[in-house]
Design brief:
Strand content: 15-25%
Low-confidence stretches: none
Largest sheet: 3 strands, mixed
Structural class: alpha+beta
Radius of gyration: 32 Å
Number of helices: 4
């Protein structure tokens, strides 16, 4: 009986000794690492989470979409954007076209379609409505 007790104590000591060396094993984190995840180098109230509402970024958002629409239409000769309205999946664009008063109804419709296609190439996620003023 004393022999089994000695073996059990020895096994427990060996297993607990190996379990305390967590720095040697990949994927192990300490409690301090878990508590400080997501914090800046300097501990502040703000985190560096790019998805937070304060850090929208420069690659997406209504402001960026509006600017991409304006830039796309600006590349067309004789067309100037007056207003861009974004609402959910809809975008309404009002434009000024040179010599608009001399255009026939069919020419205006063709110009509207051409502007729609240009906008669609820039931001394809919207249903586009174009109004020539």
């Amino acid at each position: 009986m004393l022999k089994y007790t000695a073996i059990m104590v020895l096994v427990i000591l060996v297993l607990t000794g190996c379990g305390l060396q967590m720095e040697r094993y990949q994927g192990q984190t300490s409690r301090d690492d878990v508590e400080n995840m997501g914090m800046n180098d300097k501990v502040t109230v703000d985190t560096q989470n790019p998805r937070s509402i304060k850090n929208v970024g420069n690659t997406w958002g209504l402001k960026q979409d509006r600017q991409m629409i304006k830039d796309a239409v600006a590349q067309m000769e004789g067309v100037e954007v007056r207003r861009v309205i974004l609402e959910a999946s809809q975008v309404w664009v009002s434009v000024d076209v040179d010599n608009e008063e001399d255009m026939s109804k069919e020419e205006k419709e063709q110009m509207q379609e051409k502007i729609k296609q240009t906008i669609f190439k820039a931001v394809p996620r919207y249903n586009i409505h174009v109004k020539i003023k």
